Amino acid sequence: MANQSSSSSCPILCASFNQDHTCFAIGTRDGFRIFDTNSGRLCYQRFVGGFVIVEMLFSSSLLAIVGAGDKPSLSPRRLCLFNTTTSAALRELNFLTSILAVRMNRQRLVVILQDKAYIYELNSLKILETIDTVPNIKGICAFSTSLDACYLALPASTTKGSALLYNVMDRHLHCEIEAHRSPLVAMILSSNGMYIATASEQGTIIRVHLVSDATKSYSFRRGSYPSTIYSLSFGPSKQLPDILAASSSSGSVHVFTLAHASQPRLKRSSSILGSIIPDAVSDVLDPAFHHVLHNVVPAGIKSYAVIRKVDNVTDSSTSELLACRAIMSVITYNGQFKEYNLSVDAHNDLTWSLGREFNLLTVTLDKAVIS
């Protein structure tokens, strides 16, 4: 998923991880760069002008890039499919208005404009579907890369936080989810397409819905004071994601332990919320499942956080979850990459440490960043 910057003072205009989080890309006012996530090695760079979208297709040489408009060849209305092996454009698609988001998997290409979404067959670039949308000036969307449950989520309203989910492979509307009272500001689909997490402009509650039947599974309160959610990320999982992370304008990253929340609860929450929310939802509002990493980023600096690795430790005899360990990577739009080691024990206590940090703008080609 790519995230575009709205701050004119930040050197990074966009950031994205590939579908399995093994690589990431940044777009700047000078060009774009691609890094190996595990080593921090700069794998590719190109300096030809500003880019506001750089999307990768797994670890292949194919990129989908969109210019910032600082020169005619880099129009924000032109999508270029680019080969990093040959450093040449493969195909270009031109649109009447600016491209706000691009998503890909191995069979589909999705292009988001302010009031339309286009679905293409990736290999032939044959247009399969055109979806008329409500005004979506920020290009808010979510896309699951699984071919078995390949969904595209788009805002359904400009006045409330509802989302439309389209099955991109079978090309039909799957459902509408009414998640919040105020308009959506961020959403993410799990890689397997089973769950969708959403946040609204109010910024205090993050909700997780099961996509198959549009039912609410979890509802987390981040606090009483609203802040803008910049990104949402599920941990990789074949079933229920273990961890959900959210970066925000406060400079903190919020971590929600879904694996622990799914364990049976002994008693209902005694909070005020517990007295007014139905049982199925009130348990997971327990703040014990919510952890905050303070001051990860300077307040007001946009950031993009992903949970890229998760390892669960279970009791071999009972399958009870004993511990959950994860790696969280954070890109800050002032040019930093940070990686955190997270560990949640059987009592749901979180410990974390900064594993490494480096400047994305000063790394040179083929240099691995160790710390």
Give the SSE map.
Layout: E1 2-4, E2 12-17, E3 23-28, E4 32-36, E5 42-46, E6 51-56, E7 62-67, E8 78-83, E9 88-94, E10 101-104, E11 108-112, E12 116-121, E13 127-132, E14 142-143, E15 151-155, E16 161-167, E17 172-180, E18 184-189, E19 195-200, E20 205-210, E21 215-221, E22 229-234, E23 243-248, E24 253-257, H1 258-261, H2 272-276, H3 279-282, E25 290-293, E26 303-314, E27 321-332, E28 336-345, E29 350-359
Antiparallel strand pairs: 1-2, 2-3, 3-4, 4-5, 6-7, 7-8, 8-9, 10-11, 11-12, 12-13, 14-15, 15-16, 16-17, 18-19, 19-20, 20-21, 22-23, 23-24, 24-25, 26-27, 27-28, 28-29
Subcellular location: Preautophagosomal structure membrane
Membrane topology: Peripheral membrane protein
Keywords: Membrane, Repeat, Transmembrane, Transmembrane helix, WD repeat
Give an overview of the whole structure:
With 371 residues, the chain is mainly beta. Helix content is 4%, strand content 50%. The chain contains three helices and 29 strands. The strands form seven sheets. The protein has a five-stranded antiparallel β-sheet with strand order 1-2-3-4-5, with no helix packed on it. Strands 6-7-8-9 form a four-stranded antiparallel β-sheet, with no helix packed on it. The protein has a four-stranded antiparallel β-sheet with strand order 10-11-12-13, with no helix packed on it. Mean pLDDT is 88; it is low at 264-285. Keywords: Membrane, Repeat, Transmembrane, Transmembrane helix, WD repeat. Pfam families: PROPPIN. It is found in: Preautophagosomal structure membrane.
